[in-house]
Design a protein that fits this description.
Number of strands: 0
Distance between the termini: 30 Å
Helix content: 55-70%
Structural class: mainly alpha
Number of domains: 1
Mean pLDDT: 90
Low-confidence stretches: none
Order of helices and strands: HHH
Radius of gyration: 15 Å
Oligomer: single chain
Length: about 70
């Protein structure tokens, strides 16, 4: 499993986007392909936000999670 690579601010932003996308998709009169896709994206954003791990960031070697032992010299 990959290590944590999302900082707290990014986690909150992803969770807020997931909530917003879910509310939008479920407020539509009917669930069609677009709404189902948006719900799938919302689920992935929520999972990323909850577990602090993003596979896209891992692939691009990005890390916004600050560990306690990382200091700027």
């Amino acid at each position: 499993m990959i290590e944590r690579n999302l900082g707290n601010l990014e986690r909150v932003i992803r969770l807020l986007f997931a909530i917003g996308l879910t509310v939008w998709a479920l407020s539509q009169p009917s669930l069609e392909l677009v709404e189902i896709f948006v719900l799938a994206v919302a689920v992935m954003l929520a999972i990323n936000g909850i577990f602090s791990r993003c596979y896209f960031w891992y692939i691009f070697n990005l890390n916004t999670y600050k560990t306690e032992d990382s200091s700027i010299d």
